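*Target chain*
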Amino acid sequence: MRIATFNVQNLRLRHPDGGDQLDGARDRDVPEDEGPAAEALDPVDRRLTAAVIRDLGADVVALQEVFDTETLDHFHDRVLLPAEVAPYPHRVCLPGNDGRGLDVALMSRVPIVEIASHAGLTAGDVGLDPPEGFGSQPVFRRDCLVVDLGALILFVCHFKAPWPDADAAWPVRRVEAETVRRLVEMRFEDPAEAFWLILGDLNDPDPPGTPGRAIAPLEDPFAVDLSLRMARDERWTFHHPDTGRHSLPDAILASPRLAAACPDAVPWVVREGLSLEAGRRAGERLPEVGDHRPHASDHAALVVDLPGL
């Protein structure tokens, strides 16, 4: 089974003048991402997003920053399929807690046995103390979507970003990580011996394996960060245009048993849809990619093959 995670950057379907139009991969936080010229690039962005997904060849794709089911279905039917992507008949995008409505989602060619959202979960629900000032608000800034594929359970996440205040975001991301760990522990009698993955945009700016990470509760020995099997200079999926820094906010964390059962499962990063401003380290790009835009997303996709599943 080939599994991928891909933050597709603000994928939202709108209906201007009664029509259908997908937002492009832009945050509207810099001048060049505003105005008619930026809007004209939106369809090109989404063609590039589809091309990346086509080239992944994944059986299951976990997505972040998808607005709703209507958006996901429209993108699948009107953009992916015309790009000659094999259909994903099983799709899910449930409402989460993002104030802009950008949720986690999943497309699968493997039948889904069960789906569970945890958007309403509080720290107290799983026996945790919330961060100071957190109160009884939901833990997840978006959701933790649990998807049962029969042979494998996925925990699809998108944690709090370290912006605009990294110090304030850290404890929020830490309680999100602790809650995902509790969900895994509550689901399995012996989590280390079950087959599961935690994947998505975990938004931790520090390199995997370094101390002080907010997501440390999900790392070794609880789970195996498969990205540590990659060459060190390959461990990046995101380029910060302001600083030039490359980082790995996206993750695929495997249960100890799954990691042991797939010793040769080494993830790889598909960067062909990144802007040219991400630099030469990103390698060859798709033909329509521009300096800042068009691009498929501000994230690259992270992919892994799990033989035997």
The chain has five helices and 16 strands. The longest strand covers residues 2-11. The two ends are 5 Å apart (CA to CA). Helices lie at 36-40, 42-56, 69-80, 166-187, 256-261.
